[in-house]
Design goal:
Layout lengths: L4 E3 L1 H11 L10 H8 L2 E2 L9 H10 L5 H10 L3 E3 L3 E4 L3 H10 L4 H9 L1 H14 L2 E2 L22 H10 L3 E7 L2 E6 L13 H16 L1 E3 L12 E5 L6 E3 L1 H5 L9 E3 L10 H8 L21 E5 L2 E11 L4 E9 L5 H18 L2 E3 L3
Length: 361
């Protein structure tokens, strides 16, 4: 067993920030971001802009335009949509074995078996007519799943989701927020490399660690198995795994910057790591009653360098074409230079959105 790397908290934070492409060395395009992060979450909540757009803007900056994402997904097929996220096509061969094994849950298998004719109907219609909106596919289910708060009584969305997870159908494109479905063979690249289950698991662990930089060795939030190398972090009792490529780049830092992060940004996903390394106990207040909110309905964390320094409570008013700043919550009072940096980033955000800023203190 190799001797663990001994890292400071500063080292650990910088590894995460750099792995998440939030240091001063900005990536060049959408595909580069997706390849490094592994996924770009899709979420329609748009107090400022939808998650997939703000994730990319917070990395690439002023040169990012939403049409670049559309091109990469729908025309170049360098990204694909799967389970609420855009993912790089390079991950598809590693995901296919898991798709072929799905579903594991007995109730899902029973529903599919009971709806064999319905499944065949959906695939036949897509083969003959696709790409199609969900609403263009008739519900011929023999057995229905009960409404669950996300889906109503129509069984077509359930079947399409199941078939996507099995690798039979795929999202070909979107019209607004609506997905257009087609057979996976007409959407996904063909003649992909094949991997056995052991190699697939190893490569997926490596990709997750690549996006994380450093992670707790047995984290249920970011499972990486034995990928990377062992490490300890000063002041932490955790055992970590660290990406050796990220470790080698520690001395090549370009410096820090300010980033305004969507609440569903991937760097915020692993809450225990966020608390342990960054000492940031993040709580999404979107689903809290208004009187219980401290920072706002959908406040965006503010990252400065390798520390979380505050929360931005803001919203775009398209009727007035303004970015309304309701509050900038400072965890510790900003110094003048820090305040100027945050204001500059907010101004850049407004310019990217094509609106003016109002309410900026």
């Amino acid at each position: 067993m190799s001797t663990p790397h001994r890292l400071t908290r500063d080292d650990a934070r910088r590894l995460v920030v750099r792995a998440q492409l939030l240091d001063a060395d900005r990536p060049g395009d959408v595909v580069e971001v997706a390849e490094q992060l592994g996924y770009i979450k899709i979420d329609p909540t748009a107090t400022i802009a939808p998650c997939e757009q703000t994730v990319l803007w917070s990395r690439i900056g002023w040169s990012y335009e939403p049409g670049q994402l559309t091109k990469a997904v729908e025309f170049d097929r360098l990204l694909f949509e799967f389970e609420g996220a855009f993912r790089p096509a390079s991950l598809l061969p590693l995901m296919l074995p898991g798709m072929r094994r799905w579903p594991q849950r007995e109730s899902s298998r029973q529903w599919l078996d009971a709806n064999a004719r319905f499944r065949a109907d959906v695939l036949a219609r897509l083969r003959a007519e696709g790409p199609l909106l969900t609403s263009a596919i008739p519900d011929t289910a023999q057995v229905s799943r009960a409404p669950d708060g996300w889906y109503g009584t129509n069984q077509v969305p359930h079947m399409l989701e199941f078939l996507m997870r099995q690798g039979e159908v795929a999202v070909a494109r979107r019209e607004g927020r609506n997905r257009i479905w087609d057979l996976a063979e007409r959407v996904y690249p063909q003649n992909l490399p094949e991997y056995d289950e052991v190699e697939t698991a190893r490569l997926l662990d490596e990709r997750r660690l690549q996006a994380a930089g450093i992670v707790k060795q047995k984290s249920p939030w970011t499972p990486v198995g034995e990928a990377g190398e062992p490490a300890t972090v000063e002041g932490s009792k955790w055992k970590f795994r660290v990406d050796p490529a990220a470790l080698a780049s520690l001395g090549q830092e370009e410096g820090g910057r300010v980033a305004l992060l969507n609440p569903y940004d991937g760097i915020l996903f692993d809450r225990p790591r966020l608390s342990e390394i960054f000492e940031f106990d993040y709580v999404l207040e979107q689903f809290k009653p208004k009187p219980q909110r401290k920072y706002g309905y959908f406040a965006h964390p503010i990252l400065m360098g390798d520390r979380f320094v505050g929360m931005l409570d803001a919203q775009v008013d398209r009727k007035r074409d303004v970015l309304q700043i309701d509050a900038i919550h400072e965890f510790l009072p900003f110094e003048e230079e820090e305040s100027e940096m945050v204001r500059a980033e907010i101004s850049d955000l407004a310019e990217w959105l094509g609106v003016t800023v109002t309410g900026l203190p």
